[in-house]
Amino acid sequence: MQIHLRGALLLIVFTLCNLYLVNKICIGGYDVVAEGETIGFVENIEDVTDITEKMDNELYESYGIDRSLADKIELVEKVDFKNNISDKEELERQISDLSDLICCGYTLIISDNETITFKSYDDLLITLAKLQRDYVMDNAEMGFCENIEYKKEYVSKKKIYDVETGYNYLKENMLLNVVSKVRQEYASTINYDTTQINDDTMYKGSVEIIQEGEVGESLVSAEIEYINGEENTRKIISEQIITQPVAQIERIGTLDPPPGYGTGEFIYPVSGTLTSEFGPRWGSTHGGIDLAASTGTPISASDNGTVIFAGESGTYGLLVKVDHGNGYVTYYAHCSQINVAVGDVVTKGETIALVGSTGNSTGPHCHFEIRYNNVQQDPLSYLK
Ligand SMILES: [Zn+2]
User: How far is the CA of 277 from the centre of ligand 1 (A)?
Assistant: First the structure.
């Protein structure tokens, strides 16, 4: 008898312990059953109806179909381990799979505007990565100009974009701009300063370089931000000078030149047609250019100068030579008439002769030469 009592006591203690444990690890809830198969276990009915209602709404909005997905689901009361409560994400996916029209999607929100929806968060991330890959740079910190968020929602399956179509849509509509920030080190040149010293013994317009400038070099470390591969900003972090630049020093003439002193810039002496350029011609060298114009067309001094020759000169025919005082002398040949005499000071643009065909000439034109220290130059590289 005593033994029995002890046994009963033990049984009571044992049962109490079990009840305590059961309450601790078990819970009353519902098996979620669809098409004869258990797809989850929930504590509250709302855990399921929250999902089905959202899907029903979307089904009605997208297709005009008034149907409750909940009809496909049976909830069976049951006590089960707490551990068996379905993961919310997993349950959503399972329920979402029951509809051939609606599914759970991830909508990309760009700067507060809802855009396209992907079937998974992975697809959304892969699409964003694909956009960035177009502008990927070594060691760059990649991002977007726009603020990006996403939201999970139930949508019509026909609204779902895959990685490829999503990428094309975002690209074509230019909804996202890729930012890449990269730190670069590079050599940079440092420009030199130019110091000018006025010199009243030199004519205006003349420049003498006393000391040639030299560029310096530095090592620059910069943070460069690119948007869609184009440089947007460049922030210099540090600059280390390797060689200092050397300033250029120039002497600048301030003295007014006397009349007849050339400016160094030449104008066309005749408005005519260029019929022969400077350089090799018929086995020899053509020492100037030919400007064809009808007989009597005025010939102008190409720059300020002094007439040093005016008259007949062999194959040149009637010829005028003007000395510009700066090392340059110009020739005007084959004239029909000369309007100046030796010693005359002429100004740029002033008529000095008329076009003709005297000397060795096949038709009316002006043969024009520019000589520097008596060496024939190509006039076309001087004329304006
Ligand atoms: Zn000629």
Answer: 8
Annotate 13-43 with b (16+ C-beta within 10 A) or e (fewer).
Answer: eeeeeeeeeeeeeebebbbbebeeeebbbbe
**Residue 59 CA, ligand 1 centroid: distance in Å:** 91
Distance between CA atoms of 229 and 356, rounded to whole angstroms?
A: 63
Q: What's the pTM value of the predicted model, to 2 decimals?
A: 0.53
CA of 317 to the centre of ligand 1 (A): 11
Measured in Å, residue 324 CA sits from the centre of ligand 1 at 21
> Is residue 265 situated within a structural domain?
no
* Residue 25 within any structural domain of the chain: yes
Domain that holds residue 47: 19-99
| Mean pLDDT within 289-318 | 97
Ligand 1: distance of its center to the CA of 272 in Å?
13
Question: Under a CB-based contact definition with an 8 Å cutoff, are residues 247 and 192 in contact?
Answer: yes
Segment 73-90, tens digit of pLDDT: 899 999 988 888 998 888
Indicate whether 375 and 290 sit together in one domain: yes
Q: Are 319 and 378 in contact (CB under 8 A)?
A: no
- Output the CA 381–ligand 1 centroid distance in Å: 16
